[in-house]
Fold this sequence. Notes:
Structural class: mainly alpha
Helix content: 40-55%
Radius of gyration: 33 Å
Number of helices: 14
Amino acid sequence: MQAASVKKAASARKAAVKKAASAKKAASAKEAASAKEAASARKAPAAKKVTVAPKKATARVKGTAPAKAVVHPPSGESRTALVRRARRINRELAEVYPYAHPELDFTNPFQLVVATVLSAQTTDLRVNQTTPALFAKYPTPEDLAAANPEEVEEILRPCGFFRAKTKSVIGLSKALVEDFGGEVPGRLEDLVKLPGVGRKTAFVVLGNAFGRPGITVDTHFQRLVRRWQWTAETDPDKIEAAVGALFPKSDWTDLSHHVIWHGRRICHARKPACGACPIAPLCPAYGEGETDPEKAKKLLKYEKGGFPGQRLNPPQAYLDAGGKPAPPLGAG
């Protein structure tokens, strides 16, 4: 009887020890799990704030806030993804600006090359208001080559830098007469030899007067392609090469029009109208400007905002789309 009691007590002690060990093991496991969770919380990065942009076609603001879509910055974007995004932006802009065209008035290659040279450091509108008097008095390269510089300066005064521009347009007219028989050449290597003509001017002339593809890298083009992260280059020639590699050559001229038009109308330098931008979901820079649709709508320019464009004689397609001709010099 005594032996049985001893045996029973031993079994009880053994069970108690086992139970204590199990409890200690469970407590240790719980403590370890808590420590691991705390460590993970310390290592976890803070939630990144995501910029949201309205869906496509908010350029046609109707007064109601558009649905939202997350914009993912293209950091780590593959080359293939970049090409696809860039081409989609161009397609979207082609839908918004189907009537995009060069915004300098011209009727022949000579007028276009002169107008493009005059457009440096001024607006196309001011050039368009100035060239009617210039071409009325000097309609051909021969006429302008033989012009009195002081008379030309007086006509070009509204364009700014009128002395330097007078020298350039008279000089290029003389070069056309002496080296090209009074005709504007249709090759890049010949055009850039003319006084005042660089690659940008040459591509404007080639693309719009001769139908030969070229990319026009003006200030608007430079600003937008960097905002869209198509390239980080700042040199115009390098920008031209980088962007040209993203598109078929046949797209280059129209691409230039689409980008420049968008820069003038919506994606402004100082205050972009982000809330009225049709490509906001594709833009890494969304949010740099006004995102409220109604406020952004007030920032729109030219036909998008109901104002006259830059050409005194715009194409009919532009007028059909609601665009208005610009007023002549002195009329407003």
